[in-house]
Amino acid sequence: MGRAPCCEKSGLKKGPWTPEEDEKLVAYIKKHGQGNWRTLPKNAGLARCGKSCRLRWTNYLRPDIKRGRFSFEEEETIIQLHSILGNKWSAIAARLPGRTDNEIKNYWNTHIRKRLLRRGIDPVTHAPRLDLLDLSALLKPAAYYPTQADLDTLRAFEPLANYPDLLRLAATTLLSGSAAIADQQQQQQQLLPWLLQAQMAQAAAMAPPPPPQQGGQNQFMQQQAAVAACQIPDLVHASPTTVAQQLAAAAQQQQHQPQEMAAAACHSMQPPTGYAADCQLDVPALMQMVQQPDASNLQQWSSTVTSSSNNNHNVGSGVSTPSSSPVAGLNHSTSAGTTTYGGASASSSDAAALFNLQLSDLLDVSDYM
DNA sequence: AAACTTCTCAACCGCTTGCAT
DNA sequence: TATGCAAGCGGTTGAGAAGTT
Fold this sequence. Notes:
This protein is mainly alpha-helical.
């Protein structure tokens, strides 16, 4: 249907409001109240469109608007609400008396967003930015040659080589353990479980919109991601049902608004209150699991994810290895302490040497920059 | 002091939603 | 059910302020 313009385009003033205009608008609304913004300008003697009047009133002239800097409490509230609601500025503003959605949006974009980025937190997902991760940071920065302890640390990660996403997760945990800033460390640790969920939701959402004839297949793949999420209850103590429901719901919307859906799916997974959640990543359990001879649980999970990511769709993780990455072509298999990469075999005792070659290949950071 | 860059935020634009007919 | 319209929303813009060289 054709849409009528919100106001007549000709003869209406635009741009900054003058004190006289403000006065007219305030006087009129005080006398007649709000409502019918279309006819208000004419009745109030203003050469403005109704939309402009409404905006001026709601964002600036309203008597209950709080002016001045945002308090620490307000800022914390905004961050927490944003982690839950996303860019729903009006919803956030509804919980901050005296603040307008426009004001909060501006404050977010000019202050909070930058601060989160500086802390290494993605302002969209509120998760640590894994794209900035580098496993080399696991080694002591000052040590040109890694110590035996460093190599042992890396060796412990060897079984994860076939699971790039888990490798990144574990790396994040280790990095957070050595972080200089205490609160950042705590935040990263608390965020990990939620991050795992969010990554999967994000990946499902970011998958290219399917052509009409392939819609069913795409939805199937996203459902598979949800199923995969449910298959790691030993690692992520969250409600798998909830995760699956959220992913499935998100997948239904994906055809229309993939970006918004991603954000919604991530936010709906509510990272822990001030990042405290009812789920926890059990890193020791993760390491124990991957060090089992057959690592069957991980294999099962990983194969479920990867089997649903054919046709170049990386459903398993938001930061899954791209198809161009060396790992995509790895012919990997694991068995009793031996890991095979593309036909080459190495025992655990050779892990450190092997990792020197493989880790950099696994973490192709440039793909995410 | 001038020129330039960066930051801030009020206002606008275009789209969506919800309601009345 | 389809249409028209008002109101609301979120993203973006651009002028002025503030900071830097």
